[in-house]
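User: My instructor asked us to take a sequence, write out its structure as tokens, and then describe one feature of it. I'm not sure where to start. Here is the sequence I was given:
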Amino acid sequence: MTKADVELNRPEMATRFTYHAPTEGQPEVYQYIRDQAHEMAIMLQELCPQSRELSLALTRLEESVMWANAAIARRSEDKTIPDGSNKKED
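Assistant: Let's start with the prediction itself. The structure tokens for your sequence are:
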């Protein structure tokens, strides 16, 4: 990526600072990402000692979900989740 690729021109600024209402199918993708991150968070809490490092790992995981959802909201081209992947097992 070059500097020109990420230059904050007016269209890019509008993309970053405009509300993007979910399109059909996006809420399910957002939920799938959150569900997967939740499973990861549980695993980290089970395996890692309570510590600053664990706290940072959980914060970064939370940030990852936010940025992934922002990527979908801002730039998505009708992505779908894998069949059956959004079904929770109880």
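For the description part of your assignment, you could build on this observation: The longest helix spans residues 52-75. Try explaining in your own words what that tells you about the chain.
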